[in-house]
Design brief:
By secondary structure, the protein is of the alpha+beta class. It has a four-stranded mixed sheet with strand order 2-1-3-4. Helix 2 runs antiparallel to helix 6.
Length: 185
């Protein structure tokens, strides 16, 4: 079975359990914390993927890192994942769970890339545009890219709004390359 299918199935099972127990917000917060720790700690990711380290040792390490910081449901889930030999998929399961929660809650992810960091007024304006495109709740992810020179690029699902200066310059270059001007003699 592929890693994507495995992570998706475990994430779906955890989502169903969280909904049943009414702990969706708590476990979502836990998953974001786990994602942050895994992103920052390469050694932990390597250890989880190592076939040399036994499952009991991996559980002890995970408990040492997360005990008291995560809910019982999340800790039990990580233990189950490790006992089933699927601990190497923890990072993929976490990402899949977060994505499935967004879908469950009807939240669309929107990505805005701007030349400089957005101010509050700009953020609010772009968020309003994203909500119109998505037709519902939107979670805005902000990025900066100085190569845009100015303006922004907003991606919501399959839709994209590009108001960047760099794209306008590229458009002008294409237009001038065609050179429709024919001199009259």
């Amino acid at each position: 079975m592929s890693g994507i299918r495995i992570s998706s199935r475990y994430a779906k099972s955890l989502l169903d359990l969280c909904i049943e127990k009414g702990q969706l917000d708590v476990v979502l917060s836990d998953m974001k914390q786990i994602a942050s720790v895994l992103d920052e700690n390469r050694d932990l990711r390597v250890m989880l993927g190592s076939p040399v380290v036994k499952a009991d040792k991996k559980i002890d390490i995970l408990e040492a890192i997360f005990k008291g910081k995560l809910s019982e449901v999340t800790m039990a889930f990580m233990t189950l994942l490790t006992r089933k030999g699927r601990e190497s998929y923890l990072e993929a399961v976490v990402k899949s769970f977060i994505a499935q929660v967004r879908i469950h809650q009807g939240i669309t992810s929107a990505e805005v890339t701007s030349a400089v960091a957005l101010d509050e007024a700009g953020r609010k304006s772009i968020l309003e545009s994203a909500v119109k495109l998505a037709g519902g709740k939107v979670e805005l992810v902000e990025k900066t890219d100085a190569s845009l020179i100015g303006g922004f690029v907003l991606k919501v699902g399959d839709n994209q709004i590009d108001t960047s200066v760099s794209s306008k310059i590229k458009s002008l270059r294409r237009e001038f390359a065609e050179n429709p001007y024919i001199p009259e003699f």
